[in-house]
Amino acid sequence: MKRVRHDMAKGICSTAALVLLTLSTAVAQEQANTSQIVTLQVVETNKIDISQKSLTLVISQASLESGGPVEAVSEDGVLIWLTNGENKKVTVASNNPSPKFLVKMRAVDITGGSGTAAADAILNDNTTKDLITGISKSLGRSKVHLGASAKVSDGVGTETYTITYTITGG
C-alpha cells in the first residue's frame, strides 16, 4: 500500500508539474498589442525673396538721335522662390497709381526651376502684372531687369516705388 501511495503521489506531482509547465508556457506566450493611425498632411508652401531691397536708378544722359533720355538699367537684383504647389506665377505690383516716369521690369536668366518670363511688366499704375508664369514644384531664381526712362516733356523729378513680389496661383 505504501508503494501505491508513493506511485500516486509521484503521479500527482508529475501531473501538477506538467500543469504548471503548461500554464507558464501559456503565460509566456501571451501577447498584447495596439495600433495607431498616422495621417500626414503636407500643406502648400510658397516663399519668395528679392536680394536687393533698395535700388536707385538715375537717368542722367540724353540721346541726340532720339531726343530723349537714355534708359537707366539694373540687373543686380536676384529673385528667389520656392513652391511645392502647381501652376503658380510671380506677380509684381507698384504702390504708385500714376507715375510720372516709366519703369518696366522683366525676369531674365531663370534657373533652378520651372517658369517662363512674362513680357515686360510696365509699372504705369498700381495693378498687378505677371513677371514669371508656369511655376510648379520648384526652387528657382532669376535676375530682375529694371529699366527706367523719361521723355523730355516729363521734366525732372524723383519718384519712389515700392514693388511687391507675390507668388500666387497661375
User: How many strand segments?
Assistant: 11
| Global outline | rod-shaped
What structural class results from the helix and strand content? Answer: alpha+beta
Q: Overall mean pLDDT score?
A: 87
The main pleated sheet reads as: 5 strands, antiparallel
Q: Which CATH-level-2 architecture of the largest domain?
A: Sandwich
Going across the major beta sheet, what is the strand order?
Answer: 1-4-10-6-8
Which value, in Å, is the CA radius of gyration?
39 Å
Name the assembly state: single chain
Uncertain residue ranges: none
Number of domains: 2
* Approximate strand percentage: 35-45%
CATH class of the largest domain: Mainly Beta
The helix tally amounts to 1
List SSEs in N-to-C order: HEEEEEEEEEEE
CATH topology grouping of the largest domain = Immunoglobulin-like
Helix content: 10-25%
Span between termini: 102 Å
Verbal overview:
It contains 1 helix and 11 strands; from the N terminus they run αβββββββββββ. With 170 residues, it is of the alpha+beta class. A hairpin with a 4-residue loop joins strand 2 (62-63) and strand 3. The mean pLDDT is 87. The strands form 3 sheets. Strands 1-4-10-6-8 form a 5-stranded antiparallel sheet, with no helix packed on it. The chain has 2 domains: 1-33; 46-169, Immunoglobulin-like (Sandwich), CATH 2.60.40. The longest helix is centred in the first third of the chain and has 28 residues, at 2-29. The protein has one helix spanning 2-29, and strands at 46-50, 62-63, 68-69, 72-83, 88-94, 102-111, 116-117, 121-122, 129-135, 138-149, 163-169.
